[in-house]
Amino acid sequence: MTISVSGSLSNPSSVTEPVSAPSAVTQRKPKTAPPADVDTVKLSQSAQVRLLKQQGQSPSQIASNLSIPMATVDGYLLAIPVTGPTATPVPAQSQGPVVASQPPAKG
Description:
By secondary structure, the protein is mainly alpha-helical.
């Protein structure tokens, strides 16, 4: 996009050349919702806190990034452990009754 100025000038040597518009003035796209075929998930505040903690952020960094009080971050972190899912041990299935063997009798 170029801008030019026309009109009569008292001094012909001061004629200006067309000026290009700054890139900041370019047309801006309006914010729109993502396309329908894109899956998005909105995390709750407590989930965001836990995720940021798992990514290694300190509680003060999390509070600053989410613009929430430190007490809220502490509450979320104390309420739910951030260690991740743990495996639940499954008992082995027995093949039948277990019989304890006894040493042979002396005699």
